[in-house]
Specification:
499 residues, 0% strand, 2 domains
């Protein structure tokens, strides 16, 4: 557990910084671009994610597995080269398809600038494909800090590029800035990764026998992730169309999509920073326990991970429910995003444990089960977005996501329980966290107006959030849901050594 704690801490620290910078980019966009342009860009980004998934999905994971289980450095170097060459070839194929399919894509999007934005993202696709093999090498060698620094630098370069293009150079239309900055940052981070890789006296080795094994291993993982990533463009195209059908203008529909996807959803991704780090750190441990059929230890490991994930998910729910509107007003100068945040806070519970369950199934080599479960959830989400706008307008996406994550979570954990032969318990911790959340929502509603009056809006809001987090963690510790003795003992040991 100490090893996992250190890995999660490292990954979470850098992931938090990276996501914070990524969130800052979204804040810049929200204050510089119109909601309609943000909605347009969300469509383009959904297409970009599909392209990246086709190019790289599964490669870093499979290469990291191979490297972690091998002591033959030449074999490791050949795996890196194989991943790099496959990523490059796939990126060229995908880019060529996007260029040759221009007439078809322009008809699908019905907005010429959308296709032009996609073209500006193609360099990012190519360089992301080049990075896939080296990414897998860093992961397999557990060089989490190196891997995270590359991603952090990418976000920094993107912010600097955005500032230069938005505020210092007026020759570029503002709507093209997000896509251009994305490509420049990906080019820079990939070059940096190559410099780090070769500076550590690593090299590329060609071995044609690696291709068949790596392609075979990455195929099911890619199928799962492509299915998930295809949801983004489908939603980005279907939801505005359905909103238009029920009475919204095309501009209103695109603006609502921009507010929900560009402002509200990034806030909802905050807990996934820690949960994603936990999932990455658990993969080698769970794989080892499952391979050795140590089901009791595996059950305990999974139960602790589920408890921790639920605690992380509930951490921000009372903040979003009680303070969602002032937070969105402060960050985005948009109250509508705050109202959506209040409604969508409940998504965090099934979203967190769904993310964890997908990582667990991948660790147990059950990518096919994960694929079919995700497919069922995706079908329910699309059905919700098609049928519910008549009754719930843009909120149909929120309710569809709740249904999607809940169903996939149930199916995933049924499979996990069958594999390990032990039940995973949710009810007790959900009940305790729900009671704490209700109390904290009431507390925040009463406390925030007082703090705002005394300290002003910004300081009052920050103080209220900090108090809420402290009270939440204290309550979990008192109820013995969260064990903080590891941390307290560490400080005691340091003090004892100092004496």
């Amino acid at each position: 557990m100490k090893s996992i704690f250190r890995s999660v801490l490292t990954l979470t620290f850098f992931s938090f910084l990276t996501r914070a910078l990524g969130f800052l980019i979204k804040v810049i966009f929200s204050r510089t671009l119109t909601p309609e342009t943000i909605g347009l860009y969300s469509i383009v980004m959904s297409i970009f994610m599909v392209m990246v998934t086709l190019v790289t999905s599964g490669l870093p994971l499979v290469i990291s597995r191979n490297i972690a289980s091998s002591t033959d450095e030449n074999k490791n170097y050949s795996a890196v080269w194989t991943g790099t060459s496959i990523g490059l070839c796939m990126s060229i194929i995908v880019c060529a398809f996007m260029i040759l399919s221009r007439p078809i894509l322009e008809k699908i999007f019905d907005i010429q600038s959308a296709y032009e934005l996609i073209l500006f993202t193609l360099p990012a696709v190519v360089f992301t494909g080049l990075y896939a093999g080296i990414h897998g090498y860093f992961w397999g060698k557990e060089k989490y800090a190196t891997m995270s620094i590359v991603e952090l630098v990418e976000q920094i370069v993107r912010i600097v590029t955005c500032i230069i293009l938005f505020y210092l150079i007026n020759c570029v239309s503002s709507r093209y800035v997000p896509a251009i900055s994305l490509s420049i940052s990906c080019i820079f981070s990939t070059i940096l990764a190559f410099i780090i890789y070769f500076s550590q006296k690593n090299k590329f080795v060609f071995d044609k026998s690696q291709y068949k094994n790596i392609i075979k291993a990455t195929t099911p993982i890619t199928a799962v992730r492509v299915t998930s990533s295809l949801l983004l463009p489908i939603i980005s195209i279907l939801l505005p169309a359905r909103l238009t059908d029920v009475g919204f203008s095309s501009t209103q529909a695109l603006s609502l999509l921009g507010i929900l996807s560009g402002m509200t959803m990034p806030l909802l991704s905050i807990p996934s920073t820690i949960i994603g780090s936990l999932g990455m750190a658990l993969i080698p441990r769970v794989s080892s326990l499952f391979a050795n059929k140590n089901n009791i230890a595996l059950k305990n490991q999974i139960q602790k991970a589920v408890d921790f994930t639920l605690c992380c998910s509930f951490l921000v729910i009372p903040i979003f429910i009680s303070l969602g509107v002032p937070i969105s007003k402060l960050l985005f100068d948009n109250e509508t995003a705050g109202h959506y945040l209040v409604s969508a806070a409940i998504i965090l519970i099934p979203q967190g444990i769904c993310m964890l369950s997908n990582s667990l199934l991948n660790s147990m080599q059950e990518e096919n089960s994960s694929f079919w479960n995700s497919l069922i959830g995706s079908a329910l989400l699309i059905a919700s977005i098609y049928f519910l706008p008549k009754y719930f307008d843009i909120h149909s996406m929120i309710y569809g996501l709740v249904i999607n994550f809940t169903v996939v979570t149930i199916l995933n954990y049924r499979k996990i329980i069958k594999l390990i032969g032990h039940k995973i318990h949710f009810a007790k911790i959900i009940m305790y966290c729900s009671i704490i959340t209700i109390v904290l929502v009431i507390m925040n509603k009463l406390l925030y107006p007082i703090l705002k009056l005394v300290f002003g809006n910004f300081v009052g809001l920050m103080l209220c959030c900090m108090i809420c987090v402290i009270v939440y963690i204290t309550a979990l510790a008192l109820l013995k849901i969260l064990d903080i003795t590891f941390i307290t003992n560490k400080f005691k040991n340091k003090k004892a050594k100092a004496k």
